[in-house]
């Protein structure tokens, strides 16, 4: 939290300082909590819409940004999902390792590659400038 | 007066009242304005002469003293600010009121970065032993003000891992991370096309920098690979992360990687009381490593391309704050004169510039205002201080605001 300018709590702080540094990007990209959150979101989404990838993507996007993706964005994210799935378990991503990060255990029966791919899409969406910037 | 400005008059006239003719109406802080007397306090530390010019340096800085022939010591710095926050803000941003870009940000904006894999502006902090809980710092001191946020200073942690979260998550290879970053850039760029906010572009750049730092930072920060003679040169503390010594070694490594601006803050000065005991500790914290940094850059042939700057935001009073005892006294803030030194980067070595009066209170020769210092610094880095401007709130701002002249006498 200190990377995100939370108070150090040894002194009274009236207003938080505001910085915007690559250190924060590193947290959002690599922290296991973020990855877990993305996976939990993905798992719940697959449960809700087991038959439509497009609905899954819409739902994840809406959860993060409070709006639905427009046509261009939907295409970008669908391409992303397909790209990730194609790279799953052949040297670029390893599904089992990725969905094992953190403590949240998703339900058995969710296919690993699909879960990992949607989790990566969710993680991407959670890192969008629009998601992380207030206002 | 404890480190660089030798004042035998203060020692001779110890305990006498500060004459009005010397004080000339200088405002006092609330910490000493209530005092009924202002007894002159000479330093309890001895000064000796060093180098080709017989420069006086106090016994508190034996290592710095040995490097005197490389240093340009300015004894006639002055500022208007009398308290820390406005004074440090003034030195860093050119204005006592916060909100403006810091000097590192100006340099990042004006000169760009020579190493795309590390932040152009890096900041390292350390706590001093002279006053371990004193002197807070604010991230706006290395902030970007109204310039793009990619020009702000990146503060490394004072710990074994200066940057956290450098490792990719399990199950994600570098190529996989690249795919995510590319998609982020693509989608964020669409947002930028739609909304035009330049901060989105900064955001994209920050993520790129984060990716690059995952490889570049571990390399730079792995000081265990340094040979033993380096640890001897800097001091044993070089192995303890978060110390000033360790930060100096890191600074040299960052400089080797062409990081544009590296700033070290060492807190714990400001000895309002118990000065002699505390400043001895502070000086010991910084002396050897500061001198070692200059020597190390020199032996690597980097000193001529690296400007090293050392100093604080104002000086101290020549009278004692609180009771003046034989071996104990304090000093309050004094904006009218203080000392900084520079080395390398085109500044004349082995020089002492400027003089203060025998009371160490006023400048009598070659005054150097903070803006003059900034103008000179920018000039040495290849920037005309009046030309590097940015339009904001209807007018053009620059680090030196509307003042400052380059000290040509100090240039090689």
The quaternary structure here is: heterodimer
Helix content of chain A: 55-70%
Question: Mind telling me the C-alpha Rg of chain A?
Answer: 17 Å
- Tell me, rounded to a whole number, the average pLDDT of chain A: 89
Helix content of chain B: 25-40%
Q: What are the secondary-structure elements of chain B, in order, as H or E? A: HHEEHEHHEEHHHHEHEEEEEEEEHEE
Rg of chain B from C-alpha positions?
23 Å
Please give the alpha-carbon distance between the first and last residues of chain A.
20 Å
Number of contiguous helices of chain A: 7
Alpha-beta content class of chain A: mainly alpha
Give a summary of the structure in a few sentences:
By secondary structure, chain A is an all-alpha fold. Chain A has helices spanning 22-30, 32-48, 53-65, 71-86, 95-98, 112-126, 129-132.
Provide an overview of this structure:
The complex is a heterodimer of chains A (135) and B (412). With 135 residues, chain A is mostly helical. Helices cover 58% and strands 0% of the residues of chain A. Chain A has helices at 22-30, 32-48, 53-65, 71-86, 95-98, 112-126, 129-132. In chain A, helix 2 (32-48) crosses helix 6. The mean pLDDT of chain A is 89. Chain B is an alpha/beta fold and 412 residues long. Chain B is built from eleven helices and 16 strands. In chain B, strands 3, 7, 10, 11 and 14 form a five-stranded mixed β-sheet that branches. In chain B, strands 5-4-6 form a three-stranded parallel β-sheet. In chain B, a hairpin with a 2-residue loop joins strand 15 (390-392) and strand 16 (395-397). The radius of gyration of chain B is 23 Å and the shape is globular. The model of chain B has no long low-confidence stretch (mean pLDDT 93).
């Amino acid at each position: 939290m200190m990377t995100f300018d939370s108070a150090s709590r040894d002194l009274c702080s009236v207003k938080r300082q505001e910085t915007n540094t690559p250190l924060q990007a590193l947290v959002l990209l690599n922290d296991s909590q973020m990855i877990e959150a993305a996976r939990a979101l993905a798992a719940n989404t697959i449960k809700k819409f087991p038959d439509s990838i497009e609905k899954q993507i819409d739902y994840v996007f809406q959860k993060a940004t409070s709006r639905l993706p427009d046509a261009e964005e939907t295409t970008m994210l669908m391409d992303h999902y397909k790209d990730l799935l194609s790279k799953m378990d052949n040297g670029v991503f390893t599904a089992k390792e990725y969905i094992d990060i953190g403590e949240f255990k998703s339900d058995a029966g969710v296919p690993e590659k699909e879960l990992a791919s949607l989790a990566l899409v969710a993680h991407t969406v959670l890192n969008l400038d629009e998601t992380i910037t207030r206002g | 007066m404890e480190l660089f400005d030798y004042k035998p008059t203060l020692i001779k006239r110890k305990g006498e009242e500060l004459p009005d003719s010397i004080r000339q109406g200088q405002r006092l802080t609330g910490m000493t304005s209530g005092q009924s007397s202002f007894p002159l306090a000479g330093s309890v530390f001895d000064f000796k002469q060093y180098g080709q010019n017989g420069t006086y340096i106090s016994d508190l800085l034996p290592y710095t003293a040995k490097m005197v022939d490389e240093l340009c010591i300015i004894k006639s710095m002055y500022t208007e600010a009398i308290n820390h926050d406005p004074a440090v803000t003034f030195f860093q941003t050119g204005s006592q009121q916060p909100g403006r870009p810091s000097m590192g940000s100006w340099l990042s904006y004006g000169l760009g970065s020579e190493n795309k894999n590390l932040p152009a502006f890096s900041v390292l902090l350390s706590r001093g032993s002279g006053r371990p809980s004193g002197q807070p710092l604010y991230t706006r001191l290395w902030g970007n003000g109204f310039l793009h946020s990619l020009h702000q200073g990146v503060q490394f942690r004072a710990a074994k891992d200066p940057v956290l979260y450098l490792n990719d998550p399990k199950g994600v290879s570098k190529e996989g991370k690249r795919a995510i970053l590319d998609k982020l850039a693509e989608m964020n760029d669409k947002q930028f096309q739609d909304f035009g906010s330049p901060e989105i572009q900064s955001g994209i750049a920050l993520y790129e920098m984060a990716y690059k730092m995952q490889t570049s930072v571990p390399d730079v920060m792995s000081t265990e690979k340094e040979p033993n003679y380096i640890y001897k040169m800097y001091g044993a503390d070089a192995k303890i992360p978060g110390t000033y010594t360790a930060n100096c070694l890191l600074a040299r490594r960052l400089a080797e990687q062409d990081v544009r601006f590296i700033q070290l803050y060492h807190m714990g000065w400001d000895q309002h009381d118990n000065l002699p005991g505390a400043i001895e500790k502070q000086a010991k914290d910084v002396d050897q490593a500061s001198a070692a940094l200059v020597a190390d850059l020199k032996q690597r042939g980097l000193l001529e391309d690296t400007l090293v700057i050392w100093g604080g935001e104002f000086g101290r009073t020549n009278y004692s704050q609180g009771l003046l005892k034989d071996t104990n006294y304090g000093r309050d803030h004094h904006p009218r004169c203080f000392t900084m030194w520079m080395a390398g980067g085109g500044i004349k070595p082995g020089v002492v510039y400027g003089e203060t009066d025998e009371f160490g209170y006023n400048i009598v020769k070659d005054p150097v205002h903070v803006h003059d210092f900034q103008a000179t610094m920018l000039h040495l880095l290849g920037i005309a201080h009046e030309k590097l401007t940015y339009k904001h709130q209807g007018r053009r701002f620059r680090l030196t605001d509307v003042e400052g002249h380059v000290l040509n006498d100090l240039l090689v």
